[in-house]
Amino acid sequence: MSRSHLLWLTLFGVIVNQAVAQNRVAVAHLVSQNISGSIVFTETSNGLQVTGAITGLPAGNYGFHVHELGDTSTCDASGAHFNPEVTNHGGREHNVRHVGDLGNVVFVGNNTAVATVNFLDTIITLRGRNNILGRTLVLHEQEDDLGQGGHETSLTTGNAGARVACGVIGIRYPAEPWNSATTSLPSLVIYALSAMFVYLSV
Ligand SMILES: *[C@@H]1O[C@H](CO)[C@@H](O)[C@H](O)[C@H]1NC(C)=O
Ligand SMILES: *[C@@H]1O[C@H](CO)[C@@H](O)[C@H](O)[C@H]1NC(C)=O
Ligand SMILES: [Cu+2]
After folding, report:
1. Other C-beta atoms within 10 Å of 182: how many?
2. Buried b / exposed e across 19-46, counting CB within 10 Å, b at 16+?
3. pLDDT tens digits along 116-130
4. The pTM is what?
5. Given the CA of residue 113, which atom of ligand 2 is nearest to it?
6. 116 CA distance to ligand 2 centroid (A)?
7. Spans of all domains in the chain
């Protein structure tokens, strides 16, 4: 086999590898004395779809963020907002926001209020620099003012108050390693075959 064949084979392997890279899914469970909820993060071609439901708070708006550490020994142990670009706090749809700023969840209902969560976010990811895997999803006791409340903590936390529930964001799918940008079993097979051809040809 010639070197140009090898080059094409390797290129083919890389392209197929990209094509078969699976969409990743992560999950976080928010549990405390009165609160119960599960939030799922699903990769799509347009961003990360965030879906789920939370119960246990009165109707209203409550701050909802990804915090930087995966330590939930207490919700305070999860550190500050995930903010790799070191910006001011903002709303989910603002140009200036922490990566972890997901705005508010809205609880609706009189006796048993429920927050239904369903939005697409183009900033948080499950790979690369803004990967939220292993960090913590936090629900606050107050509304996030999205940086616009004029309070001394508006530009750092949105003045959202204490943390009432939190959960580490973990792998739901696939079970195979997430360490490479494009992991999947078929891609590993293709790389192994490419390497074998290179070995046999030299
Ligand atoms: C849970 O709800 C009960 C009843 O409303 C309340 O008394 C209690 O303080 C709540 N617990 C927490 C941690 O908010
Ligand atoms: C809450 O109760 C009020 C009055 O009882 C009613 O008009 C309203 O529709 C209820 N809201 C929800 C979300 O159930
Ligand atoms: Cu927060």
Report:
1. 13
2. eebeebbbbbbbeeeebebebebbbeee
3. 999 999 999 999 999
4. 0.82
5. 13
6. 17
7. 1-22+179-202, 24-173
